[in-house]
Design goal:
301 residues; alpha/beta; two-stranded antiparallel ribbon; 40% helix
Length: 301
Amino acid sequence: MRYESIEMRHLRYFVALAEELNFGRAALKCHVSQPPFSIAIQQLESYIGAALVQRSSRQVTLTDAGHAFREKAVRLLAQANEAYALAHGIAEGKQGLLRIGFHASMVFRGLDRLIRRLEEQEPLLTLELSEMSSQSQVDALIAGHIDIGFGHSALVPSQLSFTTLFNEPLMACLPPHHYAAKGASIDLRQLEHDDFILFRRAGSPAYFDQIIALCVNAGFTPRVKYQTSQWLTVVSMVSKGLGVAVVPQCLSSCGIQAQFLELQHQSPLSPVQCMWLAACDKPVVRSALKHVQQCISSPPT
């Protein structure tokens, strides 16, 4: 089948000729000398088995077949350009789907900055955001349901790679009118007789165990009355006087009416991590990771 011999250059040359209706100008437009340009047009007509142009000493015109072929050739060239741009964009991590898992508190750690930067600098990326606990992110990464996760004190298994973006202090979170809420800091032992609200252990075992250990080191076992699956729910319940909590520092800027105090005698730090599948070679992940470190950061105290 002779049409299989048609090359992209044949299409480009013919479209240029159809636009210029002059062999010399068309050849110049294609950055080639006129003799090989003319030969290519002749080859194209031979492959098709029909004359596409009518030549005379004064002018060049398209035949009916040439007019019909021009329309299709323009479309084919456009599709080829789109295919190139798509493949190149995906290979460079500039285009495709990026699935991000995050915990609600990441909104106060710069997730909004990351999203805006990706939208501005990688406009061809499609972002898919899924709110989930740190442990759920670990499971989703391993299962291939998300590409990047942002966990807090996550127990990262060997299947995942991760980078610690920063270490965040923990703070006491008290109801607005709590008797111990007057100072800037607090000895955790002062909360020995209060009801505690904790983030559910199944969602973040490391957080749960760290807070229990802090209380035990302070000389008491916390009386855990409520457990929730969202940090913002913890702070909201504290603001309504349902108990006290130990929470990440970033939540002090969440706007909920509660008192946030530094912990005396202890400097507990909670790592905030970006995680991804170790075996992942997706260009969109490599591209996004370049922006993560610049956007995700500890909020000012």
